[in-house]
Each structure stands twice: as structure tokens, then as C-alpha cells.
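Proteins fold reproducibly. Look at a concrete instance:
___
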Amino acid sequence: MIQGHGGNIYEVAKALGCSHGEILDMSSNVSPLGMPPGLKAMLEKKWEEVISLPEVDSQDLSAKFAASMGLSVNQVLAGNGTTEFIYTIPLALDVKNPLIVGPTYSDYADSCRAYGVEPMFYMAREENDFQPDLNEISSRLTHVDTVFICNPNNPTGQFIPAESLVMLIEAHPGVRFVVDESYLPFVPDWETQSMKNAEARNVIVLHSFSKIFAIPGLRLGFLIAEPDVIKSFKPYRQPWSVNRLAQLAGSFLVRQRVFVEEVAQFVGKEREVFLANLQGLDALVLFPSAVHFILFRLKGDLRANDLFTLMCEHKILIRDCSNFHGLSDRFIRIALKTTEANKACAGLLCTLLSS
């Protein structure tokens, strides 16, 4: 389940005999700008609140998040990262015939298998830059009860515009659509593209604070759905699933709208420069991305693990994508970081792949 995720920086540091701070981690796809200013200081000030239990159901945080999104509180649940919801969905929604739009994040399939349900897959094609064909997906939904879509998608970086996605969802009112928007805030004007605005009752939205605010260790995510769907999750929820520091962080972060806009603007500029620095490198095929991570395919004899190892020797960590269902051992993913880090990574890639 957790084998092969990005961000295994401690394991690599141990193998190299160095501290994790010496490694440039471009495998982990959190915000390149790190945590918002003021968050760490606020948590340090509130540290002693961990001596008491957190609010049992995070209702105060849910209300603040709902207000920031223009929703009612009975449309929102706060959880221990979106992972909590991904692994509750098959049980809470009694999923029997899921379809997963891939290649994508493995936990959608793993969560279904945890309850004895084997998912079906629709795989976007490399020749289409891994952009899903919604007409083809639509044609496969006759016996499907739940569709999992990551939008923008990890690891391909592809994005389905809201207008197109809403048309698909509305065309199949008897099918539930779980839309994971963990990376949507990295897209400019992201709220206009969110399925939280969809009036269809058969859509469930996952929203993560881990990626955009660079706090994956705190574990904080939200589920957005119609009130009757929210009720179906409550019997399966554990009390105190969101720890006190995460609750405090969430209350602070719902106000950081300007920071989110700054991240999206930074990503757009850095992605353009990073890709320009790799132009003419024949050993790499790059795929268009709407977000801060980019999928590449290696040409020639080099495999993903080979390049991973070579980069690690220079203390730069990238994502070997060979364990994504639907991808081969030719694929890697690189997540943008600071301007200096991006330049260093592009330079090393050019050196290694031009020799």
C-alpha cells in the first residue's frame, strides 16, 4: 500500500550515509514554497494544547472550511488526510463495481481491494499525452457504480476542465463520481474549476491541505458532498481522527487564499523555465502538465531505477514511476521546488542524459 510513494527521503539519506537535509527531494509533490508564513509560529504558540483531546468531530474546523468554500457545514467532513476518506469510501458507499481513471494514485485501487472489491480501469493513452477520453469513459459506465478521478492527475499532471467533467457527471446520474482535487489549488483560479460548484448530487470531492500547504505530516483533508452522502460516512468515522495541531493548522490555513494564488503563479513560471532548460534533451520525452510535477519517459537503454540511482548519488531524489499501474519502468516524475533547486535538477539531468 505505502511502498513506492514519493518522499522516501529518510530511507535514501540512510543509504547514502548523510542527513535528510542534504538531499534535494524532488520526488515529493508538495508546494515548492513550503508552509505559509506564520503557520509554524502559530503552532509553536499553541503547542501546549496537545495535552487535551482535540475536538472529537472537528466540527469547528469543518465550519470554517465550509465557510471559506461557500458551502454549508453539513456538506463537509474534516479528516486525517484525504487518505482517511479514500479508505472509507468503499465501505460507506457500498462500492461494488468501481472504475478508476488511470494511470493514477494507487490508493484508490488499494482501498477497494481492502474490502474485497477488484476495480476496473480506464487507462489514458500515452499517444494522447495521458489526457483521458471522456467519451470513452462514458461508454464504459453501464455496469459501474463509482468512478475515481484524480483531477489534476497524479502522476501525469493532466487536467480535465470543469465544463467537460460536469457534462460527464451529469450524463450518468446513477453513477457516483469521486473527484480527488488534491492538486487543483496549484492551478490558477482553481475554485472556478472545482467540482464543489457542481450541482449534481452524485459527485464527491476530496480536498487536501497536505500538498498546497506542504504539511503532509500533519494529515489534513476534507470531503465535500451532499448532506445525505455525508451522513453515510459518519457511522464509519473514528473519534478524534484529526489531531489538535492539524485542527489548529486548518483554522489558520483556510484564510491563506493569497498564499495559494502565489503558489500557483510561481509554479506556472517555474514549470516553463524548467522545461525550457530540458529542451533538446533527446533522452527524455516530456508530457504536458497543469501542475507542479511533470511526467517524463526515458528513451534509450536507461530505466527509471537507473536514473533514480544516478540522481541519488548526487543527492537529488526523483520519483521512479514504474510501480504506477499503467506505466512502465521508463517513467519518472519530477516535482518542482525552488528556482535554485529546479535549476540544479535540470542541469544534472542534462549532464547525466547527454553523456
User: Anything to note?
Assistant: The chain has a mean pLDDT of 95. The chain is about 35% helix and 15% strand. The longest helix spans residues 257-278.
